[in-house]
Every structure is written in structure tokens, then in C-alpha cells.
């Protein structure tokens, strides 16, 4: 299989180049010129080796070309991102003009929009600039801008604070990966709409209009607020109508990925359409109709969601799959998956650092690599049992390749994911196509059909919400404060690779390598845990509006802070929770209090 998936190697070396470029950005060497030169040299050498039929030399040079290409694209994208903002850092300005680029997103107390800053007012004159910002507006503001509005804002923008605490979420880096460098809080009266710029030829304008129309259809037809919030999150990619306890249910059941529009949602739409139109592939002309229909439907779904990057990536992935299916006699799913990843990273190398991108591709890779081995363990004869087992095996396969990164990012593990996922996936397989069908029947269908489809959407959303609430009633439904460092994550993925290769190649010596990797992982983790457990650690934390000092010893974290921090759960979760997890904390003790939490 490895020899039949050349794009796996291509993506591997290209990703290595992205990491190298990210590391060299801060170096004083002229990285841009260096990698252009190396790219040309290795390309010429590779061409020469290919001409004289030296396969080894050609392969090495081609790998180095990919390495240089990844580094070059990363450095180039970084230079483009930071070219315009220098003016904002140097200039003293009192107001700025921006163009709103997204629908207002509801937050707890504010509305949030993305905007392109086009000019600033400094020294009684306007200076053109080109950068993006995330603007927060009070939810009860008298003026709420819409996409395409030109706004004049009295005030200044600021860069998000750096992550100064160990383990703290790097919000600045998170926004930079999305191409956003600035944030701003707009007080009442500081915002004025001065015009509108609607480009009817811009696909993003279409997507916003379609997304708003779809939202109005769902709001009109779905009576239950929890069901409406779920459908809006799953289809439109906006989670602002989800309740806090509802989100908590999806987190503790291990199905929170359902709430974000991702590759899985696009894959479900793709599989349903492929199943319904599969008969067209029997004829040569029908294959083209099949391809055109799927691309058209996936494009419509992408427009409904508002074209977020995650959907663009997933749609491209599925389109590559269907093209390979139509025009290739044989194709390897992993090769097609790696091809779509390469195309995405070629145009946007920062997508590699997006958690959704990482988990989506790992989940798909897990399904392609581990689904068949897991499914073959049990072969029921009853069709219902077989269907349930297939969904369970699918869930296990996806969870197997994503759990190392899930532990690394979220430090918790839902123990009943295997119980809940089959039900959620089954309901989702009905809910997503039915919700899309609801949009169509509201255009040209009788009222009774609209009501019937709305009832199907409502009841499946209700059942999905009910199923994810079950684990909270079971003992030990969530294991928290789990911590893995990057080395441990690598060990786990190496172990999974050896297990898979042993099964695929029927060379069971690789099971010994997997066992050896597990032993090294256990020793490394044990030594780290012992060192952290018995080595006292004193830390002064940087928490806005709070004074916080902590000391850890023996699994306990002693926190000395002001009184308001002890009741500020949001501040603790953002600034200290990951640090506490890295120390293996099993008890928090606040100074001046008699109890512990």
C-alpha cells in the first residue's frame, strides 16, 4: 500500500518543510532567498538524476525540493501577512475604516465580526493599509454592521496578548493562523456605517446570502430551540444559538466534533448523494452526470455553510475523491486523501496548525487504515446488528487515530464515546440530508411535504440531543486532567503505525516494534510524572486584573490569589487549567480557604 500512495511521502516532506519554514521565520538569515536558491539547485539536480536514470538520486532531490517548497511557501505567506500591519504598529491614529467580511456572531455579551482594515487616520490624513481584524461589538448596540458594510470606527486596534503562562492557549497564534492580527472592542457610539460594498460576483457574498436564507428557513420550521441550535451549528457553522449545557453534553460524550462543520459533515452529504446517484456510473455519460451532480450539491452545501475554511478543505477533499473515482480505474483512498491535503497546504500552509484540519484528516486516515481490521473482528449475520457494529467500528477507527491529539489539546477522554457515537452518527446520517432537503422543499413543494420534512429534522435533532445526554448519568463518564507532551504524542503515533503495518504486511515482527515503542513511552511518561510529582514548582502567573502565584507538590496545586480569582472560573480555565493538567494535579488548594476544589 505504501508504494501505491506516493502522495503520502510528498505530503510528509512538504509538511516537514512547513515546520522548517515556521522555525526559520524568526532567524536572521534571508530565508526567502535561501530557499529559492536551494529549490532551484535541487530541482536542477533532480532533473539531471532523472535524465541519467538514477532513481535514488531523483527521489532524494525531489524530497529536498518538497522540503524547500514547504519552507518557501510558509515564509512567503508570513511575509504577506505581516507586510501591511507595520503601518498600524508605527503610526499614531485616532480612527480607522474597515469593510465587514462576516456575519455577526453571537458571543456571551458581544457580537463578533471579521473585518478588513483598509485605511487609518493619522496626522490629519488617511493612510492606506491592508490587514484583518476581529471586532467585538456590544450585543445591545444601536448599530450592527452587515457583511459588505464600510464602517468608520473611532478608536485603535491592538494585538492580542502573548501567551505568557505555561500551557496557556495561544490566542494570538490562533488568530494569526487565520490571517487575523488585530482585535478591537467597539464602544457604543464609536461605530458609524458610511457605505456598503456588495460585489455580486464574489462567492463569499453569495454564501452569506444563502446562509442567511437557510437560517431563516430553519428558524421558521424548527420549533424546538435546542434542535434549531444543533442544526444551525451543524449546517451553517454558527454555534451562537447552542446552550451551554447542550455544548457540555456533546463534550462529555466525545461527540463535540458534530457541532463544527467539518470533513465528516461533507463526507456524509457526499456518501448520501453518491448512494442515491450511484446507478449513473454504469454508463460513460452517466459518470459525467454523476460527477457534475455531486460537485454541484457539495458546492451548494458549502455555500449554505458560509464557506468557512474547514468546509472548503472538506469539499475539496471529497471532490478529489469523486474525480479519482470517476476517471481512475483503481485508486487508493489514502493517496487521494494525501493529495487533497497537499493541495490545501500548498495554498494555505497555516491550515496545518488548525486543530480541525488535524483531527479531520487523522479521523479520515483512521477510517481508511483501521476500519477493516476492526470490523473483521466480528461478523454478525443479523442486518441490524451488522449495521450497528459497522458504525461502532467506524467510530473506533476514527477515535484510534485522533485520541493522541485530543488528549494533547483537551486533556480529557470520554469513556462512553463507543456507546454514544453509533447513535449520533446514525441520527446525523438522517439529519444532515433531511435538513438540506428541507431547504429545497421550501422553494417548490406543497405545505404537507414541508411539514413532514421539518418533522423528520426536528425529531432526529431531538434524538441526537437526547443521546449525548446519556453519559452524564453513568459513572466515570469523563476522565480529566490527562496530559501528553509532544514526545508522547509522537510515540503513540509511531506505535499505531507499527500495529497497522504489522496487520497490512502480515509481518508480525512489527508488533515487537510496537511493543518496544509502548515500553519506551511508558518509561518516558513514568520518569516525567515522577519528576513533576516530587519536584516543587513555584510559578508567578500573568492573569489580567488578578494577582496569582502557584506552587505544586505531590499532585497538589496551591494557589495564592486575590479573592475575585477564586470565583472566576473563566480566568482559571483560560490561564491555569492546562498548566495544572501538565503537573498531574488532582487537588486545587486556594490559600485563605478551608476547602479545596
| Dominant shape | globular
Number of helices: 21
- Low-confidence runs of at least 5 consecutive residues: 593-597
Strand content: 5-15%
Total number of strands: 13
Average of the residue pLDDT scores? 82
**Roughly what percent helix?**
55-70%
Query: Mind telling me the C-alpha Rg?
Result: 26 Å
Task: Report how far apart the termini are.
Answer: 51 Å
Summarize the biggest pleated sheet: 7 strands, mixed
The oligomeric state of the chains shown is single chain
Query: What class, by secondary structure content?
Result: alpha+beta
Structural write-up:
The chain is of the alpha+beta class. It contains 21 helices and 13 strands. Strands 1, 2, 3, 4, 5, 6 and 7 form a 7-stranded mixed β-sheet that branches. The chain has a 4-stranded mixed β-sheet with strand order 10-11-12-13. Strands 8-9 form a two-stranded antiparallel sheet. A hairpin with a 2-residue loop joins strand 3 (110-122) and strand 4 (125-138). The longest helix is centred in the middle third of the chain and has 28 residues, at 383-410.
